[in-house]
Amino acid sequence: MEGQFMQTSNVQSSSQSSRFADCLLGWFDVFGRHDLPWQHPKSPYSVWVSEIMLQQTQVQTVISYFERFMLAFPTVQDLAAASQDDVLSHWAGLGYYARGRNLHKAARIIISEHDGEFPSHFDEIVSLPGIGRSTAAAILSIAFKQKYAILDGNVKRVLSRYDAIDQWPGEKQTEAKLWHRAEVLMQTERADDYTQAIMDLGATICRRSKPLCAECPVKAGCQALKADKVGAYPVSKPKTEKPTRQVVMLLALDGEQIFLQKRPQTGIWGGLWSLPQFDNEAQLSAVLPQTGEQSVLETLPEFKHSFTHYHLIIQPRMVEADAKAWALAGQWMNLSQALEMGLPAPIRKLIEKTESKHVKNGQLCKNG
Ligand code: SF4
């Protein structure tokens, strides 16, 4: 009797799963996004680059970055041959720079270990830097039409609502449950369309706020909607206060030149160019003798930049310096040249402000 029940229940769940996939694909054929730049032409390389850019960044923002990136590095060979500075300068603004660094590293591995061919096996793909299970599944399903389910932020939200899951999706056991559901619901041979469809559903219908349930192709089976509790899912992460850190940054100028240092490869803003950074004023004072003759330090207004795990208060100090007497390791470059380098977004803003002040002052002098 129990076996019979289980059989009936499995048949029901399999037919429910194929209904989910059929409804989703029917909707996708009419309303899905079919004109994204990485879909034409679609190659493992273009899908990979887009998937990495789409981690933590929305489609609308990614489009222009993707187009510029592909113009600069049209093939994996071009990307592997480029310098890290060049790659990061095309990444600057997208944030999460480890993604750009890993993309570059992975391109070099594809050249050296896979003869320049993007691998097509899960284990090979997931072992490349910067590629986790969901990204590997997206590449395999979209570019190679292999049946691998994805579980990115959008899909987690859709499934948490569809099944009315009462735990935070970031919790290990809940995530395992969601992976299982993602795989079970993928009842179709159209693996590439299914993956694009569930991403589109999450981005355009089952949105973070104000989901459009009336237009949703899978509303008939949605448990959150049935209970009239859509707003309760996905369950939020238990709150913890983000810590705040303070740093002092040195903005050294010699005429139109600015002094920058390359940050270490690991840690925040790894591999990008930035201003010399100090934990406190005392640390800055200790290195000032190495900067030769300079005018008095000017205190610029501090500002806050927030990372996923903490807030950073940046206290800029500006100094008129003499590049020839300078003994700190790093590089002097023109303000305009500096703005072409891979810079962290808040540092770019600060340099832009400095540059525009310079231009104004220059004009004032000329006019004067
Ligand atoms: S019915 Fe609403 S909450 Fe449920 S999956 Fe569709 S859009 Fe999301």
What structural keywords apply?
368 residues; alpha+beta; Nucleoside Triphosphate Pyrophosphohydrolase; eight-stranded mixed β-sheet; 15 helices; 8 strands; 49% helix; disordered N terminus; disordered C terminus; Adenine DNA glycosylase
Summed up, the helix count is 15
**Uncertain regions spanning at least 5 consecutive residues:** 1-12, 363-368
Q: What is the CATH topology descriptor of the largest domain? A: Endonuclease III, domain 1
* CATH architectural group of the largest domain: Orthogonal Bundle
Mean pLDDT: 90
Q: How many beta strands in the DSSP annotation?
A: 8
CATH homologous group name of the largest domain: Hypothetical protein, domain 2
What is the approximate shape?
Answer: elongated
DSSP helix fraction: 40-55%
- Percent of residues in β-strands: 5-15%
- What is the distance, rounded to the nearest whole angstrom, between the alpha carbons of the first and last residues? 97 Å
| Rg, alpha carbons | 25 Å
State the domain count: 2
Note the run of SSEs as H and E: HHHHHHHHHHHHEEEEHEEEEHH
Major β-sheet, in short? 8 strands, mixed
Unique ligands: iron/sulfur cluster
Structural class, please? alpha+beta
User: What's the CATH first level of the largest domain?
Assistant: Mainly Alpha
